[in-house]
Design a protein that fits this description.
The complex is a heterotrimer of chains A (557), B (136) and C (352). Chain A is mainly α and 557 residues long. Chain A has a single domain, classed as Cytochrome c oxidase-like, subunit I domain (Cytochrome C Oxidase, Chain A, Up-down Bundle). Chain A has 16 helices and no strands. Chain B folds into 2 domains: 30 residues; 77 residues. The longest helix of chain B has 45 residues. Chain B is extended. By secondary structure, chain C is of the alpha+beta class. In chain C, strand 1 and strand 2 form a beta hairpin. Chain C is elongated. Classes of the chains: A mainly alpha (557), B mainly alpha (136), C alpha+beta (352). Chains A and C meet through helix 3, helix 7, helix 8, helix 9 and helix 10 of A and helix 1, helix 2, helix 3 and strand 9 of C.
Chain lengths: 557, 136, 352
């Protein structure tokens, strides 16, 4: 991986033992290594949560199926959701931020390298804690084991009366711990971006990835804390005689919902904004044009950051808020679609008039655009409170959020991996395997999640371990499950590609994609110190300026 | 890479950015404010709604003296840091010890004020735990 | 050049495949349900709230459909028209940084669309949520339990479970049903798609909803808010009756339990085991509120909130071991002897 020493010709260099290598990785404070640790950690949990999803889909292939018991099913969907959001989505995006932000802004490391390491290990502990519940949560039969309260853990289902044993506590503590890790990383990213940019890199010259991670980190600061607060109150309810959410004693189930979704909605924007960042870096390079409308892209993202703080109760359209509240949250939810739509148009504008190269990162990006458009439109349907009273809590909304999370986040992450793997490892990922991965995953994704909208429209609620035959849901569920397996095969091919290419891939060189941001000026992989001397930039695309001195970007900005 | 000349254009302008410690502390304060805002919202939501009591009025008193201690300790540590930066050891030591004393006073006062609530709280916990251990 | 042409023909082949696949899926998905089965299709509304939602949804679908077609067309066009050709290798296209007019246009148009959608939605929200209650409305209190529904008609003195009977509502002389939604334990959600949007049953937070079905029939639904192990089997069955049928049903439900001397044994088993602690049978000593009211058990088509049909065999199996039908149900297996079990089932069979 990255070299930690300057090669002195003729010097004796001892071979590092595997213990030393492991020690190096465990004690690292280098943002690149921590970035890789985050990403590998997340990919592991992607596979784990993916297997959970496959088991769910096998159970739902046929009505009245008995593949797993209702108790196990309920634990599976809880763990699948919790793992994917907190131990796949957040870590992989923090991992890319960690790796790329210092390189892109011309810094040697993050602002606080030790805080960086601490935050990673906290988040890692959180994931292990959640899965330790499988063995550690003792209790009576049916009361221990993995949490089974859904990833939102609505009250009063989480009260001791309804969730005896410790499974809910593992959920609470795992997320509390990893939440603190997230806040640490967010502080680090903000400090790095604001305080460690190389000379000449004014905020208006920063790559969009840095801007979007800045906005995302600001949102993490404000929105993860409400979840931590609510979880502390839940622990007080469960162990110290509190009644915050204990309805039997005058507490409020609605209060938990508000607190959770004040976290939960910005959280999904926290998950998607870094993927917007990937798109904003990848699409220009493979269209051979700069991003269309850089200032508006920044403004739109900041706008999304603010407006998304005001939409949370669209997750609560069925709980019986009055018509004024429902109308308010409708207008804010529809409003947040405007800056989001603007971004889609700007990416289209970037491709327009370009010379598009259909390398694998671009294939995934085009998939992202198509799918995020659809997801945004089903989001408009769900944002309209009256329509939502039919659609919410059904498979329609499950289809919608998988469209954003798989069709958006996962596709975005795949694009990012194919794009930056050469920089991180020094070798290219195999293009043929990559295309196979893309097409298989695309077909499986659409088979599953396009069809999934229909049972929702036909009245199938979510979180049910089985369903009644004869309502028109049967064949659809079978096909949806088949699509899941196709996606699984694609992911196996992807993992194989990652491993094979690491050992046998084509050498990448500094700049395999002919790109324009600072990370492509370093070697692949970059040395531990990133840059021999801190760069000085005069435009948004410093490498374009170097490669095209006759047509400097700095003349047009 | 290390042997390459710097390929980037030179600039002579001064380049100053905020101090990272300040930015990080601001971030931390924002996060802390967010978490405490939620606690305050929960408090305001439930104020006056207790079915059994005790009410805040019965249990808590406004700790004016101890609040002054806490807030002035912020001032004294600020001066202590200033003197440390300037290297005036005696003044630094004085203000530093004053800070510790004020902080200690505050902690003592808070503990004294909360002692009855905390002990009855732990008593309730023990009772809860005992009944729960019976086999919930 | 050839590579590019092959690539675009590959795209065409894939596009054709996708189109064929979707047509097949659409045909499959629209298979007409078994005529004796009931649908839960939100686009087959039978009541005013559901109908207002469908009207709004068509409007929203048309607008979002147009947006989708336009943006998709632009995306497909740009992929095809602006694909890099081998002949262009080494040359970069014109580096365009943005365009104020275009960006203004695609900011203003979405804002206008949002305003229009909001106004349409606000109208529908208000129509459904703030509808006044006419004099002839039927009042029902629905109480959600893990994992069954309790229905009380306070003005009619009727208590039943899981299967709701309501009258058809004639628009000229409306007799809608207004439900007050409460919960005895965790969160639930009342969702009968063809009659109304769903509304949750939140403990400590009473909710109101209404429906005015305009044709008689059976309408199915189920709990839509995850409430625990058997959330999936908390089914709803709404029987919309003609006014005469509804009145007859109410009269039947208002009677106390049928008393049949020959079933004294069964009744004794029922009352001496813990059954009466949870269940109520009007006119007897049994007045438990934790489980469904059994006074008119035989008037229901299903048992265990729709988990099984109401047949003697199922009833026997349910009483013997509820976990055989609904694992995780809160009704304990009473471990009755065979003779006790037979007696109790015979007794249940008389509760019409």
């Amino acid at each position: 991986m990255s070299s930690n020493a300057i090669t002195i010709p003729g010097a004796q260099i001892d071979e590092k033992s595997w213990v030393d290598t492991l020690h190096g990785w465990v004690t690292t404070v280098d943002h690149k290594r921590l970035g890789v640790l985050y990403i590998l950690y997340a990919l592991l949990f992607l596979v784990v949560a993916g297997v959970e999803a496959l088991i769910i889909r096998i159970q739902l292939m046929f009505p009245h199926n008995h593949f797993v018991s209702p108790e196990v099913f309920n634990r599976l969907f809880t763990m699948h959701g919790t793992t994917m959001v907190f131990f796949m989505g957040m870590p992989i995006l923090f991992g890319f931020a960690n790796y790329l932000v210092p390189l892109m802004i011309g810094a040697r490391d993050m602002a606080f390298p030790r805080l960086n390491a601490f935050s990673f290990w906290l988040s890692a502990l959180g994931g292990l804690l959640l899965y330790f519940s499988l063995v550690g949560a003792n209790g009576l039969y049916g009361a221990g084991n993995a949490p089974d309260v859904g990833w939102w853990a609505y009250a009063p289902l989480t009260a001791r009366a309804f969730s005896p044993g410790h499974s809910t506590d593992y959920w609470t503590l795992a997320l509390l711990v990893s939440g603190f890790g997230s806040i640490g990383t967010a502080i680090n990213i903000i400090a790095t971006i604001l305080c460690m940019r190389c000379p000449g890199m004014k905020l208006s010259r920063m790559p969009l990835l840095a801007w979007l991670n800045l906005v995302m980190s600001g949102m993490v600061l404000i929105s993860v804390s409400p979840l931590s607060a609510a979880q502390i109150m839940l622990l007080i309810d469960r162990y110290l005689g509190g009644h915050f959410f204990d309805t039997q004693a005058g507490g409020s189930a609605m209060l938990w919902m508000h607190f959770f979704w004040i976290f939960g909605h910005p959280e999904v924007y926290i998950l998607i904004i870094p993927c917007f960042a990937f798109m904003s870096e990848i699409i220009p390079v493979f269209s051979r044009k700069p991003i269309f409308g850089y200032p508006v892209m920044v403004a739109a993202t900041v706008c999304i950051g603010f407006v998304s703080m005001s939409v949370w109760a669209h997750h609560m359209f069925s709980v019986g808020m009055n018509s004024y509240a429902n109308s308010f949250f409708t207008i804010t939810t529809l409003a947040v679609g405007v800056p989001t739509g603007i971004k889609i148009f700007n990416w289209l504008g970037t491709m327009w008039g370009g010379r598009i190269q259909f390398k694998v990162p671009m294939l995934f990006s085009i998939g992202f655009l198509f799918q995020f458009l659809i997801a945004g439109l089903t989001g408009v349907m769900l944002g309209s409170a009256a329509f939502a009273s039919q659609l919410t809590l059904s498979y329609f909304v499950v289809a919608h959020f998988h469209y954003t999370l798989v069709g958006g986040v996962v596709f975005g992450v795949f694009a990012a991996i194919y794009y930056w793997y050469p920089k991180i490892t020094g070798t290219m990922l195999n293009e043929t395997l990559g295309k196979l991965h893309f097409w298989l995953f695309l077909i499986g994704f659409h088979l599953t999640f396009d069809l999934m909208h229909i049972p929702g429209l036909l009245g199938m609620p979510r979180r049910i371990y089985t369903y009644e035959p004869g309502r028109g849901w049967d064949t659809l569920n079978l096909l949806i499950s088949v699509g899941g397996f196709i996606q699984a095969i694609a992911v196996v091919i992807f993992v194989a590609n990652l491993v094979i290419s690491y050992f046998k891939g084509k050498k990448a060189g500094n700049d395999p994609w002919d790109a324009w941001t600072l990370e492509w000026s370093t070697s692949s992989p970059p040395p531990a110190y990133n840059f021999a001397s801190i760069p000085v930039v005069a435009s948004r695309r410093p490498l374009w300026d170097l490669k095209h001195p006759e047509d400097l970007d700095s003349r047009y900005e | 890479m290390s042997a390459m000349a710097n390929p980037f254009p030179q600039t002579s302008a001064t380049w100053s950015l905020p101090y990272r410690g300040k930015v990080a502390m601001a971030g931390l304060i924002i996060a802390e404010s967010a978490i405490f805002t939620i606690f305050v919202v929960a408090y305001l939501f439930y104020v006056g709604k207790s079915l059994t009591g005790p009410t805040p009025r019965e249990v808590l008193e406004t700790p004016i003296f101890y609040t002054i201690c806490l807030l002035s300790s912020s001032l004294t540590i600020h001066f202590a840091a200033k003197f440390l930066a300037r290297g005036i050891a005696f003044a630094f030591l004085g203000f530093w010890l004053l800070t510790i004393a004020l902080g200690g006073l505050f902690l003592y006062g808070t503990a004294r004020m909360n002692h009855p609530s905390v002990t009855s709280w732990f008593r309730a916990c023990r009772l809860l735990h005992a009944s729960a251990a019976d086999g919930t | 050049m050839l590579m590019q042409r092959m690539k675009s023909s590959k795209i065409h082949i894939v596009a054709q495949f996708i189109f064929l696949f979707w047509s097949a899926a659409a045909v499959w998905a629209s298979e007409p349900p078994n005529s004796s089965a009931h649908t839960t299709n939100i686009f087959a509304p039978a009541s005013t709230p559901a109908k207002s939602i469908v009207d709004l949804s068509v409007f929203v679908l048309v607008i979002t459909g147009i947006i989708f077609v336009v943006v998709c067309a632009l995306l497909v066009y740009s992929i095809i028209k602006f694909r890099g050709r081998a002949v262009d290798a080494g040359r970069e296209p014109a580096q365009v940084y943005g365009s104020t007019q275009i960006e203004l246009a695609w900011t203003i148009i979405p804002i206008l669309i949002v305003i229009v959608l909001f106004l349409a939605t606000a109208r529908a929200i208000h129509a459904v949520q703030d509808a006044p209650e006419p004099a002839g409305a039927i009042e029902v209190t629905a109480i959600g339990h893990q994992y069954w529904w309790e229905f009380r008609y306070p003005k009619l003195g009727v208590v039943t479970a899981n299967e709701l009977h309501i009258p058809v509502s004639d628009p000229a002389n409306p007799t809608p049903t207004f439900l007050t939604l409460l919960s005895a334990d965790t969160d639930h959600s009342f969702w009968v798609p063809e009659l109304a949007g769903k509304t949750d049953l939140i403990p400590n937070h009473p909710n109101r909803m209404w429906m005015d079905p305009q044709r008689p029939g059976i309408f199915l639904g189920q709990c839509a808010q995850y409430c625990g192990t058997q959330h999936a089997k908390m089914l709803l069955r709404v029987s919309v009756d003609s006014p005469e049928d509804f009145a007859a049903w109410v009269r039947g439900q208002q009677q106390p339990a049928a008393q049949d001397a020959s079933l004294a044994t069964g009744r004794r088993v029922f009352e001496s085991n813990a059954c009466m602690n949870c269940h109520a049978v009007a006119g007897t000593n049994a007045n438990g509120r934790f489980g469904p009211d059994l006074t008119h058990l035989m008037s229901r088509v299903t048992i265990a909130s729709g988990a099984a049909m109401n047949t003697p065999e199922n009833l026997r199996l349910w009483i013997q071991d509820p976990n055989a039908i609904k694992p995780g149900s809160l009704m304990p297996a009473m471990k009755l002897s065979d003779s006790d079990l037979n007696a109790v089932v015979s007794y249940m069979e008389t509760l019409r």
